Amino acid sequence: MNLLPRLVVGEWRTSGTCSSSPPGQWRYPPEVVLDLSRLLSRVRHPSPTGIDRVEMAYARTLSRLIPDRLRFAAVHPTGVYGRLPSRSVEEFLNRTEERWESTGGAERRMQGQLAAVNHCWLLRPRPVPDGTAQRVLLQVSPHHLQHSAIIARKLRRECARFVCMVHDLIPITHPEYARPTGSDLHERRMRSVETFADGILANSQATLDVFLQRPEAHSSGRPARVARLGVDPTWLRPTPSRAPNRSYFVCLSTIEPRKNHLLLLHIWRSMIEALGAEQVPTLYLVGRRGWENENVVDMLDRCQTLRGCVRELPRLPDSQLRDLLAGARALLMPSFAEGFGMPISEALAARVPVIASDIPAHREAGGPAPDYIDPIDGTAWRQAILDYSAPASARRAAQKTRLCHWHPVTWDAHVKTALSLVEEVAAC
Questions:
Q1: I need a surface site. Which of 9, 219, 291, 386 has the fewest CB within 10 A?
Q2: What is the pLDDT of residues 297-332, one digit of tens each?
Q3: pLDDT: is 396 or 119 the higher one?
Q4: Sheet holding 248-252, edge to edge
Q5: 380 DSSP assignment
Q6: CB 260 within 8 A of CB 375
């Protein structure tokens, strides 16, 4: 049991707005307060990150599963924490999904700014009401975790227990792939989790194992669950809407060092030099440019050999992304480190083959279906890409057969696992 958070929360319960009754005497099931700070902070962005998709999936799924005891809250962009009106939240979620689906980078700047101002006004924080039941604050993004005072203030206002999702510890375990200050920043986030969380939700066993290696996390005894990320039903499309006129591959991720784009660019350059540009499939890089990736950017901007065969699509609407992915020979995921690997699950759900780096998180996301290759084995990657490029590829056909036996995790199943943890924490 996490004694420090329990003592702090117990102290808050003796204040004017918190009941002093022992937790076991509350009526169950508990009220669940979902923190939407991440989505609200991204109100100006028409394209989502993976964490944005997770928070959206929770908002939608919890609204269906526990509508009577779900509440929404956020740290507003103004810095004020409070409750959000459900009707305004629903409008915000609807509009956000519409932008993700059809707008992407085509949104006019002024249009996006006006929409952001409108949503920020409609979602201005309201006071937190006095508690009449046990509360659990559920946060599924790392937003504001680096600021322990903000987390403490939220919990004091809610007089709630705290369940938090840990997505990865990559900036700590692999600081060479993070921004210069990324390791220290993420260390502060994990300390907040260790200090305040009464329950830990992990997106993979790989993530939980790394988290539990930390002395404070290992010794706390607080309950934890692994809930592998779900797949939205919109990905369950087996064929593209139009046949491609040239074979191609897709790499879906932010362009940053740990994603290993440099490997793919060198492979494409070597194939073009050996076979000629007309005989080489196209590589689509879907994702914005990130950080600490000067070598990749130099190749994309200055390598003439790659022109026409490697194309960047930084902000692609979801409808176009699904269509592009459905026609690919395979999704390529050569990452050095991941917390889970959501694009792998989404591709497999669309019955698109995957070639991925052989790391634990990828194997959890894809199971036995994909072809897994060491992320530094350039020769094996090159051969796999050439094999999958062939019109009658036996290797690709074998994976398509394996895909018949692969089934995605649904968001309902994922969120029900999270709710079991919430209720265990409430009962402690």
A1: 219
A2: 999 999 999 999 999 998 899 999 999 999 999 999
A3: 396
A4: 310-313, 282-286, 248-252, 331-333, 354-357, 371-373
A5: H
A6: yes
Please state the separation of Cα 41 from the chain's center in Å.
15
Compute CA 115 distance to the chain's CA centroid, rounded to the nearest angstrom: 24
Please identify which residue in the block is written with the tokens 């808050």: 12
374 — phi, psi (to 5°)? -55, 130
Please name which of 354, 411, 362 lies closest in space to residue 385, comparing C-alpha atoms.
354
Q: How far apart are CA 151 and CA 162, in angstroms?
A: 9
Question: Which tokens in the block code for residue 156?
Answer: 């004091």
Q: Are strands 70-75 and 81-84 parallel, antiparallel or unpaired?
A: antiparallel
Residue-wise pLDDT tens digits, 193-206 = 999 999 999 999 99
The residue to which tokens 């920043």 are assigned: 185
- Give the type of residue at 212: L
Give 5's pLDDT tier (boundaries 50, 70, 90): very low
Compute, in degrees rounded to 10, the torsion defined by CA atoms 313, 318, 319, 324: 40
What does the DSSP assignment read for 79-116?
S-EEEE-HHHHHHHHHHHHHHHHHTGGGS-HHHHHHHH
The total number of residues written for the chain in this structure: 428
pTM of the model as a whole: 0.90
> CA–CA separation, 388 vs 397, rounded Å?
9
| Residue 44 near residue 116 (C-beta atoms within 8 A) | yes
Q: How far is CA 232 from CA 56, 191, 224, 229, 240, in A?
A: 11, 32, 24, 10, 17
Place of tokens 């995921």: 333
Angle CA 106–298–389, to nearest 5: 75
The beta strands (E) that lie in 270-379 are given as: 282-286, 310-313, 331-333, 354-357, 371-373
CA distance 31 to 69: 5
Radius of gyration of the chain (CA): 23
pLDDT tens for 120-172 read: 888 999 999 987 789 999 999 999 999 999 999 999 999 999 999 999 999 99
